[in-house]
Amino acid sequence: MMLWFQLLLILPFSAAFLPTPASNNAITISRPTTTSATTTATTTLATTSSLQSSPTSDNEFTGFGNTGFLILAGGTGSRMKASMPKQFLTLRSCPVLHYSLHLFLEKIPAYCAANGLTPPAQVVLVMDPKYQPEYQYIVDAYGGKLAFANPGVERQGSVENGLNKLVELADNCEFIAVHDSARPLVTIPEILDVVTDAQTVGAAVLGVPCKATIKESDDGITVQRTIPRARLWEVHTPQVVKVEALLRGFAKVEREGLEVTDDVSIIEALGEPVKLTLGEYTNLKITTPEDMDVATAILSDRGEEEIVLGAGTGVSEGGGGTGRGGGSIGGDAASEVDLSSSSGASGAAAYGKANPFAQTPAQRMDEKSHNSMTGARLNDGYDTGRTYPARPTPSKWHE
User: Fold this and answer.
1) pTM for the full predicted model
2) Among 3-12, 34-43, 136-145, 387-396, which is the least confidently predicted range?
3) How far apart are CA 156 and CA 164, in angstroms?
4) Which of 45, 222, 277, 337 could make a disulfide contact with 194, Cβ separation 3.0–4.6 Å?
């Protein structure tokens, strides 16, 4: 009897610890609610990021119709220690310069056609006059879309000459994108990003956060100080600037005798903003023989297609030369050896017939064969957050 009495006293209190239908509902609802809140927050963050980094509907990117491209190929490349300027050295199957020509004359126009965007207004190639005859037939192949300009004594003079040629040929050219031909690995997504930023801000330059620790020294012997790395960016090309602003900048530089190191420095001298556009570490500049090995490995990893200029333009295979394979650039034949898979003159002839715009795989005996590095892949995980229609896949390679 006492046992039953104790049970009756305990039951009301134990019921408070049992799940009720209401509490079950609360538990069931709480999980999707939390997930929904997280999803909403993530979506909001993504939307905010997209709004900050992408063109607005009022300033939607429509293409490159108001942008001309200037390729600088007038340098001597003394640090390469080669028998010719570095832009004519063979990278895989063709000269380094041809990767930039192929990008601006073939790949970007094809991308624009596939996505309803306007192609580049004009491409100007700044090149030493003594090499221009070797490339004249490529200029002819593009029916006025490609033109020569002569280099200046310094980079600034080369850019100014190219800009004047661009203004002369393209009346609707509002922006100029200056690219160094020694950077053969720049990608279409990078071009889209930097041109979009320039059209929004007025000037933009591709760059990546500096990874190396930088020391400052007055005498090159002792360290004066360490510069905070968090504020340092390594700038690449293209550098995209409003034509009108660049013309004003050149006038100011000449009037005041200013010293500028790159194209956007001229805009900085005007006190106008320059947007840093996050690029890829793979957009390296060919400066030393080791850079050729790294570039070869990156291209192999990307699975880049064969570089063919003037495709479908009816250019004769027997036209002038493209660097050392097609013409006189590079020295006498007696000092060359055949590195093609098919040895002898027949192998080189077959190679040239398959791709008349590529440089034959012959090279001087004192030059290095830049085809040895393969394999490793590194990734830094930077993401620009931009979205464009059917964007090409960015390179998986990062320095």
Assistant:
1) 0.68
2) 34-43
3) 12
4) 277
